[in-house]
Amino acid sequence: MPHDHHDHDHLSASGHPYRKDNDGQLTYWQTMEIAIRELMVEKGELTPAQIQAQIDAMDDRSPANGAAVVARAWTDPDFKKRLLANGSDAAREMGFDIGPMHLVAVENTIDTHNLIVCTLCSCYPRNLLGLPPDWYKTREYRSRAVREPRAVLREFGVDLPANITLRVHDSTADMRYIVLPARPEGTDEMTAEQLAELVTRDSMIGTGLPKSP
């Protein structure tokens, strides 16, 4: 099962993950995107600056957004209730624009662990977690997370006891999930900002756990 532990084997000289050159022939959809974008600029519907601003806003999305939401839920019981009741409204309350999608927060507890997948493609709460990791989009993860989720979790280093209920949630184009991981022990004196540093991307997908303090 591929995951980020292997990404370090494919780094360029700059230290960034290696990617093949994308100078091949454009796909049909890439050609359509360029044509529509140029047409909208020509018609005055959009400006290049507006397009770039939106691209920059998308690039700024990262797991730090989701970590801030989780940390607040850990320190604010009333916010936690609102998050579990309506994830979309709770995210907007913190200033995160998640668009029209329905966000569902699922809580890990002493007897329940949650795992997120998108069996159809790669639906993912990008507004809170940034771009999905490569392994999340693979056919292997999308199928095995449903067929043998405990085996998948073991490969990520999460070995659940047999008495822990494991729930797998399938994201869709209209509904995305985020895991509210259990707060680590020994963090009672930590601030929300400090707690956010413990929240990992994988812990909000369910394939990992928060860092220890």
UniProtKB/TrEMBL annotation:
Q: Does the keyword Metal-binding apply?
A: yes
Q: What class of enzyme is it?
A: lyase
Catalytic activity field: an aliphatic primary amide = an aliphatic nitrile + H2O
Q: What SUPFAM superfamilies does UniProt report for this protein, alphabetically? A: Nitrile hydratase alpha chain
Task: Note the coiled coil stretches, chain numbering.
Answer: none
Organism ancestry? Bacteria, Pseudomonadati, Pseudomonadota, Alphaproteobacteria, Rhodobacterales
* Keyword annotations: Iron, Lyase, Metal-binding
The organism encoding this protein is Litoreibacter meonggei
Q: What is this protein called?
A: nitrile hydratase
